[in-house]
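Section handout 9: paired folding examples.
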Amino acid sequence: MDPNEIGATLLVVLLVIFAIIGVLAVVALIVVIVRFRPPLTAIAAVVGALIYGASPIDLIPEAVVGPIGALDDIGIIAAAIGFMVTQIRKRRDVTAGRGDAAGLTDMSLRKLPPGERTPGRD
């Protein structure tokens, strides 16, 4: 086999693998959204991380440092998923009456003490 054919075949195989991983990530995100109803900010964080991981601008770290450049993708996606998990747990605790809404990004679940106004509303 010609080395160019091997390189082209390897590239196609890698693209198919990344496409399958992308589809699985989107399906997993849809399942989480339907089942746990995370706040919109958490959804936006994960979608943004997935878009960053698939964007052409993200190829720069991989081109500079090789496979180690994928660590930024893993870190960003892990941070976004961690943020979503935290928001889901806080929402679950608040709706169950076990916690306060401190740090919860979903303003609809915050309960203000009597007489305190909502920030930004005069």
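Moving on to protein 2 of 2.
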Amino acid sequence: MSLHGQIVITVLCVLGLVYVVVLTVSRALSEAWCLLWIGTLSAALVLANVRPLLDWITREMGARYPASALTMVAIFLLVLLAINSHREATLHSRQIAALTRQLALLRATVEAAHPDPLFTQGRSTAEACRAAETGSEGGTRRPAEEGNG
């Protein structure tokens, strides 16, 4: 790889590292993802600047040019990151489904244990709570609140 190519990759990796750290400090990126991205960018930085290592990987991969080997390694690392993203999304999806089921059971339990026709006015508890939060209860108040207004 040419000196110009090494400089470009080094600058891009350093900018990427700074961006990852800024995202992590601002809490827009979790620490686990920060470590993954730092590892990926550091590997690219090392491969681009340690010529004997890149030449060895090029020979072992059967590639003709170091840039081709570097591209193949980068694609492999990005595929691993994508797989990890999908794994986390699947876990979060399952957690959301479980929490939704628990919330539905809790709402049903509350509605069965404490029916309050003055509060719900024929609506589900969830609808009544949403109306109470937005202040669009239709001007109705509980009798105990009449004098507190």
